UniProtKB/TrEMBL annotation, chain B:
Keyword check for Metal-binding: yes
Protein name: Ferredoxin
Superkingdom field: Bacteria
Cofactor(s) required, per the database record: [3Fe-4S] cluster
Organism: Streptomyces antibioticus
Alphabetical list of Gene3D superfamilies matching this protein: 3.30.70.20
Stretches of the chain forming a coiled coil according to its record: none
Length: 409, 62
């Protein structure tokens, strides 16, 4: 069958960035048949990174967040505000929360993540998470109430971004709590963690590190956070940014490996099924550029990369061309805006965490700093901290990052 | 192929430089420079650059 004769239907579950990119890449790969997207948010796909930054700061209206879909997907059908509740992969059907049963020839899983919640005792009102537009708008209202005192639980990227935005909004007390001894140290290691701690403290963020949260005080609203070391921090706004959980319950009972996302093979097929692929944050895929071990990567660049590979896999199957694409070996990239500085990451820093070297700049002071992460002596990740100059410095290391030969797993 | 970057939106992230170094670069101050009429053979990587722009500031016109 030629590309112009595609018949049948591809169903995309999850209508955010990865779902949209998958639809676009299906067209780019020659699929001319029907495409239906189902998403439980009421909005067309929008960009999440500004939620913890510009949206929280009141600087980005919704219109500026919406993605501009490529013209090739103008005829796709969007079922928004509808949630997939069960799937029967052998029969190729998905059932939605309103009872509708949709059959498909190809399935794209793009249901992403939701925030993990703390389970310790205490009242719920006053506690926020930041994943959706509605979350960010609710938190903005709370942060802009006069006299708000904020405790952010979790010193990862989103927690540190929220703390920085809260300081910029004029919140008088902003404290970040984390059981680890330094911020963002999981993905970036202690060298950058120390530099980041210093820069945050210099701009007014307080930290309670090396301690967890035991519970929340207050009767019907949060009034404080009890730490595991016995201290109590007064707070009327709490932000929980303690990681995320994959939205895969609707796929239960199909024999898939759903431990931490949907495990896929190197072509992004789920459970070895050629007609079901996974994309974006929810996909746990092997990256042949590194060690080929399946991992989820919650970076903004991954929806686009996985969509391209998954669409080729799916269209080759649906068209019966059986073409085997090259092994999937994306170069992950990530950025994070905090206060007046930006972090930019290229490659896989955590994969080279045992051999970290300063490539440009120094760790003292506030200037631009570029750090390299190595494995077996080869550069596997570069992180730049600072202004635009740091990004150009990082770009100089691109050839070395890409030179690492992709392994065939 | 014509490439248009909305320089009011651009915040010099440099993600496009990683995706398509033949078309996009950063000068010594970290400001974006680009080739507005690249060869059609580069379409794949320019599309990639447009996709990875955090500000969605890159447009491709035919
Ligand atoms: C606050 C915040 C800030 C971020 N900042 C950065 C940053 O600065 N830099 C960076 O590189 N990355 C950042 N990221 C990460 C980046 O936004 C994600 O990697 C990206 O959004 C993943 O897209 P996705 O489509 O895979 O998943 P998601 O965006 O989670 O989309 C999944 C969609 O599926 C829907 N869904 C779930 N279950 C169902 C169901 N059963 N039926 C129907 N629909 C369903 C969800 O509601 C959602 O709309 C940030 C993320 C957040 C939340």
């Amino acid at each position: 069958m030629t590309a112009s004769e595609s018949t049948g239907r591809v169903l995309v579950v999850g209508a955010s960035m990865a779902g949209l990119r998958a639809a676009e890449q299906l067209r780019a790969a020659g699929w001319t048949g029907a495409i239906t997207l189902v998403g439980d948010e009421p909005h067309m796909p929008y960009n999440r990174p500004p939620l913890s930054k510009e949206v929280l700061a009141g600087k980005a209206p919704f219109a500026s967040l919406a993605f501009r879909p490529r013209p090739a997907v103008a005829d796709a059908a969007w079922l928004l505000g509808r949630r997939a509740v069960t799937a029967r992969l052998p029969e190729r059907t998905v059932v939605l929360d309103d009872g509708t049963s949709l059959s498909y020839d190809g399935l794209v899983v793009a249901t992403g993540m939701r925030p993990r919640r703390l389970t310790c005792p205490g009242p719920l009102p006053g506690r926020h998470t930041v994943r959706t537009l509605d979350d960010a708008q609710g938190l903005r209202e709370a942060l802009t109430r006069p006299g708000a005192r904020v405790v952010v639980v979790g010193a990862g990227f989103i927690g540190c971004e929220v703390a920085a935005t809260a300081v910029a909004l004029g919140v008088r007390e902003v404290t970040v709590v984390d059981p680890l001894p330094l911020p963002m140290t999981g993905p970036l290691g202690p060298l950058l963690g120390r530099a980041l701690l210093r820069r945050h403290e210099a701009r007014g963020v307080r930290f309670a590190l090396g301690t967890g949260v035991a519970g929340f005080t207050g009767d019907d609203r949060v009034t404080g956070v009890e730490l595991s070391d016995g201290r109590v921090l007064a707070a009327d706004v709490v932000v929980e940014s303690v990681g995320s959980v994959a939205n895969t319950e609707w796929l239960d009972g199909n024999g898939l490996d759903l431990t931490d996302g949907v495990r896929t093979d190197a072509l992004l097929r789920a459970g070895g099924r050629p007609e079901a692929v996974a994309v974006g944050d929810v996909a746990r895929f092997p990256n042949a550029r590194y060690d080929g071990v399946p991992r989820r990567v919650e970076h903004w660049s991954i929806p686009g990369d996985t969509a391209k590979q998954a669409a080729r896999t799916l269209v080759a199957h649906l068209h019966g061309t059986g073409e085997e694409p090259a092994p999937f070996a994306p170069l992950p990239t990530f950025w994070s805006d905090q206060h007046d500085f930006r972090l930019q990451s290229f490659g896989a820093p955590s994969y080279g965490a045992d051999d970290v070297r300063v490539l440009d700049g120094t760790t003292d002071g506030d200037g631009d700093l570029v750090v390299g992460y190595h494995r077996d002596g080869l550069l596997v990740g570069v992180v730049a901290l600072g202004g635009p100059g740091a990004a150009s410095a990082a770009a100089r290391h691109r050839p070395a990052l890409l030179a690492r030969p992709a392994v065939t797993a | 192929m014509k490439v248009v970057v909305d320089m009011n939106k651009c915040q010099d992230h440099g993600q496009c430089v990683f995706a398509s170094p033949d078309v996009f670069s950063l000068d010594a101050d970290g400001r974006l420079l680009y080739v507005p009429d690249p060869d059609d053979a580069l379409r794949d990587e320019v599309e990639e650059a447009a996709d990875v722009c955090p500000l969605q500031a890159i447009r491709i016109e035919d």
